[in-house]
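Notes, Module 5: Reading structure tokens.

Key idea: the token line is not a picture. It is a compressed description, and you learn to read it the same way you learned to read a sequence, by spotting repeated patterns. We will look at two proteins. The first is printed below with its tokens.
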Amino acid sequence: MTTMISEVYDAFISASANEEKAKKATEAVADHEKRFDPYRQGINRS
């Protein structure tokens, strides 16, 4: 399942981005954020 960040998507749409491109860019941002989850979990345990 692909995650989207609705605030980022809304910002792209408000900036007159093409809907499909806005969706793809938002998914890329969400995927990028997921890369850091293991590190965040380690920091929160400290």
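Here is the second protein, with the sequence above and the tokens below, as before.
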Amino acid sequence: MMTRAPIPIGWKPFRKNLLCHITTIFRLAAELKKHVQRQPELPEKEGIILQSDLERVIGRISAEHHALNDRLTLGLNIMSSNSKASNVPLQNMVFQQAVKYNPMSPVYNEDGTFFENFNNTQYFNPVSIIKNAVDDTKYGSLQGNFTLEAKLPFNLTYNANLSYQRGTWLHGEYYNSYYSNNYSTGSFYTNGDPGGGRSLRNFYSNGLAYRNYYQNTSKTFETFLTWGKKFGLHNLKAVLGYSWQKNTNNDGLQTSQTNFVNDYTTYYNLGLGNYQTVNGFAVDYGGSVYEETNFISDFFRLNYDFNERILLQASVRRDGSSVFGKNKEWGYFPAASIAWRISESEFIKNAGFISDLKLRLSYGATGNAFGLGAYNAQRLYNKSGTYYNNGVFAASFRSTQGSNPDLQWEVTATKNLGLDYGFLKGRISGAIDIYEKTTTDMIFAYSVAQSIDPSGSLWLNVGKIRNRGIEFNVNVNVVNRKILPGTQA
């Protein structure tokens, strides 16, 4: 016999208390010549759905030290955070079933088991979906930055920045034997995010577990030397620098297991499972691919101004990236600009209604390497079934992407002619710009005939796009008067 009495709305898989509780343990700061600040925090947030919450520990340390009569400045910033997120198993499925599920139906049978009505296809108890699975993720983040600034003779200043970032993800999922016994029915579809479609799930036998760990790191070193000198009405400033960056992504692994002895250890002990006795089960090693990219830049910039009336700037960068072909890893990107502050000229300086008037002309080229995979220019292989060889079946491989040693930088060149203006002591201000932006050597993946490359796929520099336009903006300060002592509108 089942209990059919109406169940209060609280049965639904949502919590009533949606408040976030954040507790700051302590904050210590000392404003001294040597400045050190430590700021640990332990925020805890309870989710709006059953079994969902987030625990996080955050620690920050910042220090700055001056030496040699302030001619040497050292800085250090470190932030570390560790989080544990208890996620909602099959969250989108829970939302869908919470909407579909009859609110007059019980959650549990009289014997304490979950109530289910399998006479309706794709109709499942949303609380059961949550309670019979766990989905946890531990996040770790470490960011460190060290800076050095040294004031040298001959108007030279040396700067060095060294930074390190690391992000880690440890994830575990377990769907217990209730899933295997009740939801492997051929009608349990999980819903992806909007636009992602849905997929049929099989929970195999006596529980199903997933476990993965991944780490991303980024190391950056930048150093530059600055020189500045003033000669009467002439100001000159030059910067010469070098930067290096190395990124690694998806450094880790994933595996799965089924057919466990019991449900007690969930995903913590995959050795208690035995997938080899379950027909149709294949270990899920994940689809993430390890990537390593390197970027190197040399740059030089020169600034000149005459009495803040004529302004000139010129720069050149030499950038290298490992994502391109071996023959085209390096690119050169110049830029130059000139500006004439007309409002500082003698023939217009005394015009009371003009507060600012500057004419600008610039050209610059930049290269795009970000957003590209680490192996776009290299030949890739993947498994392609098996073949019979000397009495055994061996794995076969095929090329899935061809190599292109001449894959080069995608370059965007921008030309701009602009006028900045301001009238009536800045009450009316704005700018007019005429620009042309041209992108060449655009990078796309193309399908090619196998006579060209056996993989049938290549990344190539093909395509060009040009944008032209006029931009106009105006700012008007309509009201500028005091409405109360010490205030202004």
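Summary for the second protein:
- The longest strand covers residues 234-258.
- The CA atoms of residues 22 and 43 lie 4 Å apart.
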